[in-house]
Structure formats: structure tokens, C-alpha cells
Amino acid sequence: MDKYTIIVEKDEDGMLIGTAVELPGCHTQAKTYDELSYRMKEAIELYLDVEKDRVPVLHNQFVGIQQIEV
Q1: CATH topology (fold) of 1-70
Q2: Which element (helix H / strand E) includes 44?
Q3: How do the domains of the chain map onto residue ranges?
Q4: What whole-number distance in Å separates Cα of residue 53 and Cα of residue 28?
Q5: Closest by CA position to 40, among listed 64, 13, 1, 8
Q6: I want to staple 43 with a disulfide (CB 3.0 to 4.6 A). Which of 4, 28, 49, 51 is the partner?
Q7: Taking CA 16 as the corner, what is the angle to CA 7 and CA 12, rounded to the nearest 5 degrees?
């Protein structure tokens, strides 16, 4: 079982948006973290099923994210 890094953002309407860093174009949205987690698993499974011949980028290790105010 592979692990994927998910970046979670919140839009102006309060919806959570999840993006799988290693899988370009693999994202979904939900109202709660639990629902987002479930939907991200579904999105990743579908992505991997459709992109069978494409190798995901798993060689980098996610170490953090930072916001800087300028």
C-alpha cells in the first residue's frame, strides 16, 4: 500500500479541497475532513485505475508547507 501526500485548502465558501501532491490533477472537495479523506481515497483509486501505465512520483518526501506574509 502506497502513501500519498494530501494538501488541504479551504475555499471562500468553507469547502475543503484536497489535492494529491504526487498525482497531477487528482483532487476533490468536501464539507468535512472525514468526508474529504474518504473522497480522496476514492479519487486516488480512480486516478490509479485510469492512469495504470503512468508511474506516480513517490521519490520525494513531503516535509511541510509554509505561509509567508509580505
Answers
A1: Double Stranded RNA Binding Domain (3.30.160)
A2: helix 33-50
A3: 1-70
A4: 22
A5: 8
A6: 28
A7: 115
Is the whole model's pTM more than 0.70, yes or no? yes
What is the rounded CA–CA span in Å between residue 11 and residue 23? Answer: 21
Q: In what order do the strands lie in the sheet with 27-30?
A: 6-10, 16-20, 27-30
Quick: pLDDT tens for 23-43.
Answer: 889 999 999 999 999 999 999
Strand-pair partners of 9 = 17
If you search the block for the grid coordinates 480512480, which residue do you land on? 46
| pLDDT number for residue 67 | 80
Q: Residue 56: which pLDDT band, with cuts at 50, 70 and 90?
A: low
For cell 500500500, the residue is: 1
Which grid coordinates are listed for 9? 485548502
Residues in the chain: 70
